[in-house]
Amino acid sequence: MKKLSARRRHPLAALVVLLLALACTGGLYAVFAPADKAQADETAQSLTIEEGKKLYAVGCASCHGTGGQGTSDGPSLVGVGAAAVDFQVSTGRMPAATSQAAQVPDKPAVYTQAEIDQLAAYIASLGAGPAVPTEEQYGPQGADIAKGGELFRNNCAQCHNFTGKGGALTHGKYAPTLEDVAPKHIYEAMLTGPQNMPSFPDSTLSEQNKKDIIAYLGEVNTDQSESPGGMSLGGLGPVSEGLFGWIFGLGGLIAVAVWVAARTAKAKKS
């Protein structure tokens, strides 16, 4: 007992007790804190989904159905993912002004970004689909612009024109211009394939490929240098070039023919 009492009065005894107390406190925090944080995150996500459901019921359910299953006026949204919602609603394509148009154009967004995030969370809860990309995925860091140009010409230029200014499709549809389009929205469009556009999942175009294409478009849209081929005619390709050829080329030939005929008639009279 005397030995035990002496050990308790040892100068280091208080330090040992303090260290043990700190170790126990840290252990208890490590056990319980993550669970509390996860529970808080889950509660916040549930609230976001609930708010998104309310917005959906007011602005979307009339066309897409009360549970997102789709109707004759709108397709099913089950499994489209948050990325599709963010693209369609952020660019103002949804809600659509009319379902009868050949193609829904972009326009000013109706919802705030916070409301769009809530709608996206609700639609994502209906079925697994592409998530909203992060800035790391679509940012220019680590992108290969030359490779992006090659990929764009092989996969996108047929519709969007090699300069990204868009082009006409069939039955009143069109490929929109890619000028002044946010990189995130370009990534989301490739990921989800809105309207007439095919989708390019990571199995078709990798995340790096998409980053390269977006970097190339950013370079094209900011390049203020002169066109190496002379007058670009708006960069709209064969449509404007053909129109130019018909008006000025054929018009010039007609003018020459009229002039020659007039000279010939005048010479005969003389």
Automatic annotation (TrEMBL):
It is a multi-pass membrane protein. Residues 47-127, 143-221 form the Cytochrome c domain. It catalyses: a quinol + 2 Fe(III)-[cytochrome c](out) = a quinone + 2 Fe(II)-[cytochrome c](out) + 2 H(+)(out). InterPro entries: bc1_cytC-su, Cyt_c-like_dom, Cyt_c-like_dom_sf, Cytochrome_c_Oxidase_Subunit. Its EC number is 7.1.1.8. It holds the Pfam family Cytochrom_C. The keyword Signal applies. Keywords: Cell membrane, Electron transport, Heme, Iron, Membrane, Metal-binding, Repeat, Respiratory chain, Signal, Translocase, Transmembrane, Transmembrane helix, Transport. Residues 1-30 form the signal peptide. It is found in: Cell membrane. It comes from the Bacteria. The chain crosses the membrane at residues 243-262. The keyword Nucleus does not apply. The cytochrome bc1 complex is composed of a cytochrome b (QcrB), the Rieske iron-sulfur protein (QcrA) and a diheme cytochrome c (QcrC) subunit. This is Cytochrome bc1 complex cytochrome c subunit. It comes from Streptomyces heliomycini.
